[in-house]
What does this fold into?
Amino acid sequence: MIEKFLNIQHHFNPLHVHCRLVERGLNKRSSLSICRYYELFIYGWLACFTALCVQICKSVKAGN
It folds into this structure.
């Protein structure tokens, strides 16, 4: 389960998103601009949420 959360966090990482946007044909400047706002408004919350989920999974696993 922890691997799934870390995989989600990796795929939604702003640098990963930037690379995928450039691969899809968006120019680098536009992609960087989008990813800056994405990191500020979305990824910060997502990273906190996945870190919390990983800690919960670890504590549940340690309790068993």
Q: What stands out?
A: The longest helix spans residues 28-63. The chain has a mean pLDDT of 89. The helical segments are 2-11, 14-23, 28-63. The chain is about 90% helix and 0% strand.
